[in-house]
Amino acid sequence: MSRYYQPEIETAPREKIIEIQNEKIVRQVRHVWDNVPYYRRLMEEKGVTPDDIKTIDDIKKLPFLSKADLRDAYPYGLLGTDLKNCVRIHSTSGTTGKRVVAFYTQHDIDLWEDCTARAIVAAGGTEDDVVQVCYGYGLFTGGSGLHGGSHKVGCLTLPMSSGNTERQIQFMMDLGSTILCCTPSYAAYIGESLAEMGYRPEDNKLKAGIFGAEPWTEEMRRDIEKKLGIKAYDIYGLTETSGPGVSYECEEQAGMHINEDHFYAEIIDPDTGEVLPEGEKGELVFTSLDKEAFPLLRDRTRDICVLSRRPCSCGRTHVRMSKPMGRSDDMLIIRGVNVFPSQIETVLLNEGYTPNYQIVLDRERNNDTFDVYVEVSADQFSDLMSQIQKMEKSLESALRTMLGIGPKVHLVAPKTITRSEGKAVRVIDKRKLHD
Ligand code: DLL
User: From start to end of 289-421, where are the E strands?
Assistant: First the structure.
Protein backbone atom coordinates (compact mmCIF):
# COMPACT_ATOMS: atom_id res chain seq x y z
CA MET A 1 0.00 0.00 0.00
CA SER A 2 1.40 3.37 -0.99
CA ARG A 3 1.76 6.07 1.59
CA TYR A 4 2.16 9.73 0.78
CA TYR A 5 3.53 12.71 2.64
CA GLN A 6 1.13 15.21 1.03
CA PRO A 7 -1.50 12.92 -0.51
CA GLU A 8 -3.74 15.63 -1.85
CA ILE A 9 -1.05 17.11 -4.03
CA GLU A 10 0.94 13.95 -4.79
CA THR A 11 -2.16 12.24 -6.22
CA ALA A 12 -3.93 15.33 -7.57
CA PRO A 13 -5.76 14.91 -10.89
CA ARG A 14 -3.91 16.30 -13.89
CA GLU A 15 -6.32 19.26 -14.22
CA LYS A 16 -5.63 20.26 -10.64
CA ILE A 17 -1.86 20.20 -11.21
CA ILE A 18 -2.23 22.35 -14.32
CA GLU A 19 -4.44 24.75 -12.41
CA ILE A 20 -1.75 25.11 -9.72
CA GLN A 21 0.95 25.59 -12.34
CA ASN A 22 -1.09 28.19 -14.23
CA GLU A 23 -1.59 30.19 -11.10
CA LYS A 24 2.00 29.91 -9.88
CA ILE A 25 3.75 30.72 -13.16
CA VAL A 26 1.95 34.04 -13.53
CA ARG A 27 2.98 35.03 -10.01
CA GLN A 28 6.53 33.73 -10.39
CA VAL A 29 7.24 35.54 -13.68
CA ARG A 30 6.01 38.78 -12.15
CA HIS A 31 8.23 38.16 -9.09
CA VAL A 32 11.30 37.59 -11.27
CA TRP A 33 10.55 40.57 -13.51
CA ASP A 34 10.22 42.84 -10.49
CA ASN A 35 13.20 41.50 -8.54
CA VAL A 36 15.80 39.95 -10.85
CA PRO A 37 17.16 42.60 -13.26
CA TYR A 38 19.47 40.01 -14.88
CA TYR A 39 16.53 37.88 -16.05
CA ARG A 40 14.34 40.88 -16.80
CA ARG A 41 17.00 41.98 -19.29
CA LEU A 42 16.91 38.53 -20.96
CA MET A 43 13.11 38.83 -21.19
CA GLU A 44 13.35 42.33 -22.66
CA GLU A 45 15.87 41.11 -25.23
CA LYS A 46 13.33 38.47 -26.25
CA GLY A 47 10.52 41.01 -26.25
CA VAL A 48 8.51 39.23 -23.53
CA THR A 49 6.81 40.88 -20.57
CA PRO A 50 4.87 39.33 -17.66
CA ASP A 51 1.65 40.23 -19.50
CA ASP A 52 2.53 37.61 -22.12
CA ILE A 53 2.49 34.82 -19.54
CA LYS A 54 -1.09 33.82 -18.79
CA THR A 55 -0.84 30.04 -18.45
CA ILE A 56 1.88 27.46 -18.01
CA ASP A 57 1.89 26.85 -21.79
CA ASP A 58 3.17 30.39 -22.28
CA ILE A 59 6.41 29.34 -20.58
CA LYS A 60 7.77 28.57 -24.06
CA LYS A 61 7.99 32.32 -24.68
CA LEU A 62 10.52 32.81 -21.87
CA PRO A 63 14.30 32.81 -22.40
CA PHE A 64 16.49 29.98 -21.14
CA LEU A 65 19.06 30.27 -18.39
CA SER A 66 22.33 28.50 -19.05
CA LYS A 67 25.31 27.54 -16.91
CA ALA A 68 27.04 30.59 -18.44
CA ASP A 69 24.28 32.80 -17.01
CA LEU A 70 24.73 31.24 -13.58
CA ARG A 71 28.45 32.00 -13.82
CA ASP A 72 28.02 35.54 -15.15
CA ALA A 73 25.44 36.38 -12.52
CA TYR A 74 27.65 35.12 -9.66
CA PRO A 75 27.14 35.73 -6.80
CA TYR A 76 24.01 37.90 -6.46
CA GLY A 77 22.78 38.46 -10.03
CA LEU A 78 19.92 35.96 -9.87
CA LEU A 79 18.86 36.71 -6.32
CA GLY A 80 15.10 37.29 -6.16
CA THR A 81 14.79 38.93 -2.77
CA ASP A 82 16.67 41.10 -0.30
CA LEU A 83 19.63 39.31 1.19
CA LYS A 84 18.15 40.02 4.61
CA ASN A 85 15.26 37.67 3.80
CA CYS A 86 17.65 34.81 3.04
CA VAL A 87 18.59 32.31 5.69
CA ARG A 88 21.04 30.01 3.91
CA ILE A 89 23.19 29.32 0.88
CA HIS A 90 24.35 26.10 -0.73
CA SER A 91 26.85 25.76 -3.50
CA THR A 92 28.24 23.44 -6.15
CA SER A 93 30.99 23.59 -8.79
CA GLY A 94 30.54 25.91 -11.73
CA THR A 95 32.18 25.52 -15.11
CA THR A 96 35.27 27.54 -14.17
CA GLY A 97 36.56 28.77 -10.85
CA LYS A 98 33.23 30.37 -10.01
CA ARG A 99 30.89 28.13 -8.10
CA VAL A 100 27.10 28.16 -8.36
CA VAL A 101 25.71 29.75 -5.21
CA ALA A 102 22.01 29.24 -4.46
CA PHE A 103 20.09 31.27 -1.87
CA TYR A 104 17.14 30.20 0.28
CA THR A 105 14.50 31.99 2.32
CA GLN A 106 12.82 30.03 5.12
CA HIS A 107 9.88 29.49 2.74
CA ASP A 108 12.28 27.96 0.18
CA ILE A 109 13.79 25.64 2.78
CA ASP A 110 10.29 24.56 3.84
CA LEU A 111 9.19 23.66 0.34
CA TRP A 112 12.49 21.90 -0.36
CA GLU A 113 12.14 19.81 2.79
CA ASP A 114 8.57 18.95 1.81
CA CYS A 115 10.03 17.53 -1.40
CA THR A 116 12.60 15.36 0.38
CA ALA A 117 9.95 14.30 2.92
CA ARG A 118 7.82 13.07 0.00
CA ALA A 119 10.82 11.04 -1.19
CA ILE A 120 11.40 9.51 2.24
CA VAL A 121 7.75 8.53 2.62
CA ALA A 122 7.77 7.10 -0.92
CA ALA A 123 10.69 4.91 0.18
CA GLY A 124 8.58 3.63 3.07
CA GLY A 125 9.72 6.14 5.72
CA THR A 126 7.57 6.77 8.82
CA GLU A 127 8.17 8.26 12.25
CA ASP A 128 9.37 4.81 13.36
CA ASP A 129 12.38 4.99 11.07
CA VAL A 130 16.01 5.75 11.82
CA VAL A 131 17.44 7.68 8.87
CA GLN A 132 21.21 7.68 8.49
CA VAL A 133 22.19 10.65 6.34
CA CYS A 134 25.68 10.14 4.95
CA TYR A 135 25.52 12.62 2.11
CA GLY A 136 27.98 15.43 2.74
CA TYR A 137 26.71 18.25 4.95
CA GLY A 138 27.95 21.78 4.39
CA LEU A 139 27.80 23.59 1.07
CA PHE A 140 26.60 20.44 -0.71
CA THR A 141 22.81 20.11 -0.66
CA GLY A 142 22.66 16.35 -0.07
CA GLY A 143 23.13 16.27 3.71
CA SER A 144 20.84 19.09 4.79
CA GLY A 145 18.24 18.28 2.11
CA LEU A 146 17.57 14.74 3.29
CA HIS A 147 18.09 15.78 6.90
CA GLY A 148 15.29 18.35 6.69
CA GLY A 149 12.92 15.89 5.02
CA SER A 150 13.69 13.26 7.63
CA HIS A 151 12.78 15.71 10.42
CA LYS A 152 9.51 16.58 8.68
CA VAL A 153 8.54 12.92 8.49
CA GLY A 154 9.46 12.58 12.14
CA CYS A 155 12.21 10.01 11.69
CA LEU A 156 15.11 9.76 14.11
CA THR A 157 17.82 11.46 12.05
CA LEU A 158 21.51 10.53 12.19
CA PRO A 159 23.44 13.48 10.70
CA MET A 160 26.55 11.46 9.87
CA SER A 161 27.79 13.32 6.78
CA SER A 162 30.07 11.34 4.46
CA GLY A 163 33.24 9.41 5.24
CA ASN A 164 34.55 7.51 8.27
CA THR A 165 32.99 4.28 7.10
CA GLU A 166 33.82 2.35 10.26
CA ARG A 167 31.89 4.84 12.37
CA GLN A 168 29.01 4.78 9.85
CA ILE A 169 28.79 1.03 10.26
CA GLN A 170 29.08 1.14 14.01
CA PHE A 171 26.17 3.59 14.30
CA MET A 172 24.17 1.71 11.69
CA MET A 173 24.44 -1.52 13.66
CA ASP A 174 24.19 -0.05 17.18
CA LEU A 175 21.32 2.36 16.52
CA GLY A 176 19.51 0.13 14.04
CA SER A 177 19.36 2.51 11.06
CA THR A 178 16.50 1.58 8.75
CA ILE A 179 16.98 4.06 5.88
CA LEU A 180 20.33 4.98 4.38
CA CYS A 181 20.83 8.20 2.39
CA CYS A 182 24.06 8.66 0.43
CA THR A 183 25.51 8.48 -3.06
CA PRO A 184 25.07 5.08 -4.72
CA SER A 185 28.82 4.58 -4.89
CA TYR A 186 29.15 5.16 -1.16
CA ALA A 187 26.25 2.77 -0.52
CA ALA A 188 28.06 0.10 -2.51
CA TYR A 189 31.24 0.78 -0.57
CA ILE A 190 29.41 0.52 2.77
CA GLY A 191 27.93 -2.79 1.56
CA GLU A 192 31.36 -4.12 0.75
CA SER A 193 32.82 -2.97 4.03
CA LEU A 194 29.98 -4.63 5.94
CA ALA A 195 30.73 -7.93 4.21
CA GLU A 196 34.43 -7.58 4.96
CA MET A 197 33.61 -7.06 8.59
CA GLY A 198 31.77 -10.36 8.56
CA TYR A 199 28.19 -9.05 8.52
CA ARG A 200 25.53 -10.70 6.35
CA PRO A 201 22.87 -8.52 4.66
CA GLU A 202 20.24 -9.77 7.13
CA ASP A 203 22.33 -8.63 10.11
CA ASN A 204 21.47 -4.96 9.61
CA LYS A 205 18.04 -3.35 10.12
CA LEU A 206 18.13 -1.33 6.90
CA LYS A 207 15.04 -1.58 4.71
CA ALA A 208 15.58 1.17 2.15
CA GLY A 209 18.19 3.49 0.68
CA ILE A 210 17.70 6.86 -1.02
CA PHE A 211 20.57 7.31 -3.40
CA GLY A 212 21.41 10.01 -5.93
CA ALA A 213 23.67 12.94 -6.88
CA GLU A 214 25.46 10.87 -9.52
CA PRO A 215 24.53 8.53 -12.36
CA TRP A 216 24.05 4.85 -11.46
CA THR A 217 22.84 1.88 -13.40
CA GLU A 218 20.16 -0.76 -12.79
CA GLU A 219 22.98 -3.28 -12.31
CA MET A 220 24.45 -1.15 -9.58
CA ARG A 221 21.01 -0.89 -7.97
CA ARG A 222 20.65 -4.67 -7.86
CA ASP A 223 24.16 -5.03 -6.47
CA ILE A 224 23.50 -2.53 -3.66
CA GLU A 225 20.11 -4.07 -2.88
CA LYS A 226 21.70 -7.50 -2.54
CA LYS A 227 24.67 -6.36 -0.49
CA LEU A 228 22.64 -4.32 1.97
CA GLY A 229 19.41 -6.35 1.90
CA ILE A 230 17.31 -3.27 1.04
CA LYS A 231 15.18 -1.65 -1.64
CA ALA A 232 17.18 1.15 -3.31
CA TYR A 233 15.40 4.33 -4.46
CA ASP A 234 16.78 6.97 -6.79
CA ILE A 235 16.56 10.68 -5.97
CA TYR A 236 17.47 13.60 -8.23
CA GLY A 237 18.02 17.32 -7.92
CA LEU A 238 20.38 20.21 -8.51
CA THR A 239 21.73 22.91 -6.25
CA GLU A 240 20.13 25.65 -8.33
CA THR A 241 16.67 24.10 -8.07
CA SER A 242 17.12 23.61 -4.25
CA GLY A 243 18.92 20.27 -4.06
CA PRO A 244 17.79 16.63 -3.83
CA GLY A 245 14.07 16.00 -4.09
CA VAL A 246 13.18 17.74 -7.34
CA SER A 247 12.20 14.18 -8.24
CA TYR A 248 12.26 10.80 -6.53
CA GLU A 249 11.31 7.19 -7.05
CA CYS A 250 8.32 5.37 -5.62
CA GLU A 251 8.08 1.62 -5.01
CA GLU A 252 7.68 1.01 -8.75
CA GLN A 253 11.33 2.03 -9.27
CA ALA A 254 10.40 3.04 -12.79
CA GLY A 255 11.33 6.69 -13.17
CA MET A 256 11.36 9.56 -10.70
CA HIS A 257 8.20 11.57 -9.99
CA ILE A 258 8.91 15.28 -10.45
CA ASN A 259 7.37 17.50 -7.76
CA GLU A 260 5.32 19.31 -10.36
CA ASP A 261 3.61 21.68 -7.98
CA HIS A 262 7.05 23.26 -7.37
CA PHE A 263 9.05 22.49 -10.52
CA TYR A 264 7.83 22.60 -14.09
CA ALA A 265 9.84 20.31 -16.38
CA GLU A 266 10.40 20.55 -20.14
CA ILE A 267 12.52 18.46 -22.48
CA ILE A 268 14.27 20.41 -25.24
CA ASP A 269 16.53 19.69 -28.15
CA PRO A 270 19.91 20.80 -26.71
CA ASP A 271 21.02 22.17 -30.08
CA THR A 272 17.96 24.12 -31.16
CA GLY A 273 16.16 24.78 -27.88
CA GLU A 274 12.93 23.43 -29.40
CA VAL A 275 10.54 21.86 -26.85
CA LEU A 276 10.16 18.14 -27.58
CA PRO A 277 6.99 16.08 -27.13
CA GLU A 278 6.57 13.68 -24.21
CA GLY A 279 8.61 10.50 -24.64
CA GLU A 280 11.41 12.08 -26.65
CA LYS A 281 14.91 12.18 -25.32
CA GLY A 282 16.45 15.60 -24.74
CA GLU A 283 17.77 18.09 -22.23
CA LEU A 284 15.80 18.63 -19.07
CA VAL A 285 14.83 22.22 -18.27
CA PHE A 286 13.34 23.28 -14.94
CA THR A 287 11.32 26.28 -13.86
CA SER A 288 10.89 26.73 -10.14
CA LEU A 289 7.30 27.80 -9.64
CA ASP A 290 7.37 29.18 -6.14
CA LYS A 291 10.89 29.73 -4.87
CA GLU A 292 11.57 33.20 -3.53
CA ALA A 293 15.33 33.65 -3.21
CA PHE A 294 16.63 31.81 -6.29
CA PRO A 295 13.66 31.73 -8.65
CA LEU A 296 15.19 30.31 -11.84
CA LEU A 297 13.01 30.23 -14.94
CA ARG A 298 13.76 27.71 -17.72
CA ASP A 299 17.10 26.66 -16.26
CA ARG A 300 18.94 24.25 -18.57
CA THR A 301 20.19 21.31 -16.53
CA ARG A 302 22.31 19.72 -19.29
CA ASP A 303 20.97 16.34 -18.13
CA ILE A 304 19.60 14.20 -20.95
CA CYS A 305 16.33 12.49 -20.00
CA VAL A 306 12.89 11.33 -21.12
CA LEU A 307 9.60 12.30 -19.44
CA SER A 308 6.61 10.00 -19.07
CA ARG A 309 3.03 10.73 -18.06
CA ARG A 310 1.98 7.09 -18.09
CA PRO A 311 -0.09 6.45 -14.95
CA CYS A 312 1.92 4.93 -12.13
CA SER A 313 0.53 2.15 -9.96
CA CYS A 314 1.71 3.95 -6.82
CA GLY A 315 -1.12 6.44 -7.33
CA ARG A 316 1.11 9.48 -7.72
CA THR A 317 0.09 11.58 -10.68
CA HIS A 318 3.23 13.64 -11.09
CA VAL A 319 5.19 13.19 -14.31
CA ARG A 320 8.14 10.80 -14.18
CA MET A 321 11.64 11.43 -15.53
CA SER A 322 14.02 8.65 -16.54
CA LYS A 323 17.41 8.31 -14.93
CA PRO A 324 19.66 10.92 -16.57
CA MET A 325 21.22 9.19 -19.58
CA GLY A 326 24.17 11.50 -19.96
CA ARG A 327 24.94 15.18 -20.23
CA SER A 328 24.99 17.63 -23.06
CA ASP A 329 28.12 19.26 -21.62
CA ASP A 330 31.40 17.87 -20.33
CA MET A 331 30.60 17.85 -16.62
CA LEU A 332 31.92 14.79 -14.80
CA ILE A 333 30.57 13.52 -11.51
CA ILE A 334 33.39 12.05 -9.46
CA ARG A 335 32.55 10.60 -6.04
CA GLY A 336 29.38 12.65 -6.16
CA VAL A 337 31.21 15.92 -6.81
CA ASN A 338 30.67 17.84 -10.05
CA VAL A 339 33.89 18.47 -11.91
CA PHE A 340 34.40 20.35 -15.17
CA PRO A 341 37.63 19.70 -17.13
CA SER A 342 37.86 23.47 -17.59
CA GLN A 343 38.37 23.87 -13.83
CA ILE A 344 41.40 21.58 -14.01
CA GLU A 345 42.76 23.51 -16.96
CA THR A 346 42.39 26.78 -15.05
CA VAL A 347 44.43 25.41 -12.14
CA LEU A 348 47.16 24.00 -14.40
CA LEU A 349 47.62 27.30 -16.18
CA ASN A 350 47.55 29.26 -12.92
CA GLU A 351 50.23 26.98 -11.49
CA GLY A 352 52.47 27.41 -14.54
CA TYR A 353 51.86 24.03 -16.21
CA THR A 354 51.11 23.24 -19.84
CA PRO A 355 47.49 22.65 -20.81
CA ASN A 356 48.46 19.14 -21.95
CA TYR A 357 46.67 16.89 -19.53
CA GLN A 358 44.46 13.87 -19.34
CA ILE A 359 41.91 12.86 -16.73
CA VAL A 360 41.53 9.13 -16.14
CA LEU A 361 38.54 7.88 -14.18
CA ASP A 362 37.97 4.32 -13.07
CA ARG A 363 36.17 2.45 -10.36
CA GLU A 364 37.92 0.36 -7.74
CA ARG A 365 35.84 -1.44 -5.12
CA ASN A 366 32.87 0.71 -6.16
CA ASN A 367 34.79 3.89 -5.49
CA ASP A 368 35.77 6.30 -8.22
CA THR A 369 39.48 6.70 -8.84
CA PHE A 370 40.55 10.06 -10.21
CA ASP A 371 43.97 10.51 -11.83
CA VAL A 372 45.26 13.55 -13.66
CA TYR A 373 48.28 13.17 -15.95
CA VAL A 374 50.02 16.47 -16.64
CA GLU A 375 52.88 17.09 -18.98
CA VAL A 376 55.66 19.27 -17.67
CA SER A 377 57.48 21.63 -19.99
CA ALA A 378 61.12 20.96 -20.90
CA ASP A 379 62.40 23.52 -18.39
CA GLN A 380 60.22 22.15 -15.59
CA PHE A 381 61.43 18.65 -16.26
CA SER A 382 63.63 17.24 -13.54
CA ASP A 383 65.35 13.92 -13.08
CA LEU A 384 65.03 14.31 -9.38
CA MET A 385 62.30 12.06 -8.05
CA SER A 386 61.94 14.14 -4.88
CA GLN A 387 61.46 17.31 -6.90
CA ILE A 388 58.73 15.71 -9.03
CA GLN A 389 56.94 14.37 -5.98
CA LYS A 390 56.95 17.77 -4.36
CA MET A 391 55.47 19.36 -7.48
CA GLU A 392 52.82 16.63 -7.68
CA LYS A 393 51.76 17.16 -4.07
CA SER A 394 51.52 20.91 -4.53
CA LEU A 395 49.42 20.53 -7.70
CA GLU A 396 47.18 18.00 -5.96
CA SER A 397 46.55 20.50 -3.23
CA ALA A 398 45.76 23.33 -5.68
CA LEU A 399 43.33 21.04 -7.53
CA ARG A 400 41.69 19.96 -4.28
CA THR A 401 41.09 23.59 -3.36
CA MET A 402 39.45 24.28 -6.71
CA LEU A 403 37.42 21.08 -7.07
CA GLY A 404 36.54 20.07 -3.55
CA ILE A 405 38.01 16.61 -4.14
CA GLY A 406 41.60 15.58 -4.63
CA PRO A 407 42.89 13.76 -7.70
CA LYS A 408 46.13 11.79 -7.84
CA VAL A 409 48.48 13.85 -9.98
CA HIS A 410 51.11 12.25 -12.19
CA LEU A 411 53.61 14.60 -13.80
CA VAL A 412 54.88 13.12 -17.03
CA ALA A 413 57.70 14.02 -19.39
CA PRO A 414 57.16 16.49 -22.24
CA LYS A 415 55.34 15.07 -25.28
CA THR A 416 54.15 11.88 -23.60
CA ILE A 417 50.41 12.59 -23.71
CA THR A 418 49.13 11.52 -27.11
CA ARG A 419 48.23 14.52 -29.24
CA SER A 420 44.94 14.36 -30.99
CA GLU A 421 44.28 15.60 -34.47
CA GLY A 422 40.81 16.65 -33.66
CA LYS A 423 39.41 17.48 -30.26
CA ALA A 424 41.87 16.70 -27.50
CA VAL A 425 40.88 13.60 -25.56
CA ARG A 426 40.84 15.11 -22.11
CA VAL A 427 38.86 12.47 -20.31
CA ILE A 428 39.17 8.71 -20.31
CA ASP A 429 36.22 7.42 -18.33
CA LYS A 430 36.63 3.69 -17.81
CA ARG A 431 33.83 3.61 -15.22
CA LYS A 432 31.17 3.15 -17.86
CA LEU A 433 32.72 -0.13 -19.00
CA HIS A 434 31.91 -2.15 -15.94
CA ASP A 435 29.04 -0.45 -14.16
O1 DLL B 1 23.82 16.50 -6.70
C2 DLL B 1 21.89 17.33 -5.51
C3 DLL B 1 21.61 15.98 -4.97
C4 DLL B 1 22.09 15.63 -3.72
C5 DLL B 1 20.83 15.08 -5.68
C6 DLL B 1 21.79 14.39 -3.20
C7 DLL B 1 20.51 13.85 -5.17
C8 DLL B 1 20.98 13.50 -3.93
P9 DLL B 1 24.52 19.26 -7.73
O10 DLL B 1 25.78 19.08 -6.98
O11 DLL B 1 24.15 20.64 -8.13
O12 DLL B 1 23.29 18.74 -6.89
O13 DLL B 1 24.57 18.34 -9.02
C14 DLL B 1 23.48 18.27 -9.91
O15 DLL B 1 24.04 15.97 -10.38
O16 DLL B 1 22.56 17.99 -12.91
C17 DLL B 1 22.91 15.61 -12.42
O18 DLL B 1 23.84 15.66 -13.49
C19 DLL B 1 23.55 14.93 -11.22
N20 DLL B 1 22.56 14.12 -10.48
C21 DLL B 1 21.87 14.47 -9.38
N22 DLL B 1 21.08 13.44 -8.98
C23 DLL B 1 21.25 12.44 -9.88
C24 DLL B 1 20.71 11.13 -10.05
C25 DLL B 1 23.10 17.44 -6.41
N26 DLL B 1 19.83 10.61 -9.20
C27 DLL B 1 23.78 17.25 -10.98
N28 DLL B 1 21.14 10.40 -11.11
C29 DLL B 1 22.62 17.01 -11.89
C30 DLL B 1 22.04 10.90 -11.99
C31 DLL B 1 22.21 12.87 -10.84
N32 DLL B 1 22.59 12.13 -11.88
Answer: 299-305, 307-308, 320-321, 332-334, 337-339, 357-364, 367-375, 408-412
Kindly state whether residue 267 falls inside one of the protein's structural domains: yes
Nearest CA to ligand 1 atom 10: 92
Which of 272, 299, 327 is the C-terminal boundary of a domain?
A: 327
Q: Is residue 435 part of a domain?
A: no
Q: Is the CB of 301 under 6 A from ligand 1?
A: yes
The torsion region of residue 126 among left (phi > 0), alpha (psi -120 to 50) and beta comes to: beta
* Residue 212 Cβ contacting ligand 1 at under 6 Å: yes
- What is the residue-level pLDDT of the chain in tens, covering all 435 positions? 579 999 999 999 999 999 999 999 999 999 999 999 999 999 999 999 999 999 999 999 999 999 889 989 999 999 999 999 999 999 987 665 668 899 999 999 999 999 999 999 999 999 999 999 999 999 999 999 999 999 999 999 999 999 899 999 999 999 999 999 999 989 988 998 999 999 999 999 999 999 999 888 888 899 899 999 999 999 999 999 999 999 999 999 999 999 999 999 999 999 999 999 999 999 999 999 999 999 999 999 999 999 999 999 999 999 999 999 888 888 899 988 889 888 888 899 889 997 789 999 999 888 899 999 999 988 888 777 888 999 999 999 999 999 989 999 999 998 888 876 666 678 999 986 544
Same domain as 392, residue 294: no
Q: How remote is the CA of residue 248 from the centroid of ligand 1, in Å?
A: 11
- Distance (angstroms) between ligand 1 centre and the Cα of 292 equals 22
Q: Is residue 356 part of a domain?
A: yes
Same domain? For 296 and 424 the reply is no
Question: Are residues 323 and 394 part of one domain?
Answer: no
Rounded to two decimals, the pTM is 0.89
Question: Which residue has the CA at smallest separation from atom 20 of ligand 1?
Answer: 213
In degrees and rounded to multiples of 5, residue 237 shows phi and psi of: 175, 170
Of 273, 298, 327, which marks where a domain is finished? 327
Domain of 407 in residue numbering reads as: 333-429
Is the distance from the beta carbon of residue 242 to the nearest atom of ligand 1 less than 6 Å? no
What CATH number should be reported for the domain holding residue 396?
3.30.300.30
Side-chain half-sphere CA neighbours of 338 within 13 A: 26
Most distant CA atoms of the chain, gap in Å:
72
Assess if residue 274 is contained within a domain. Answer: yes
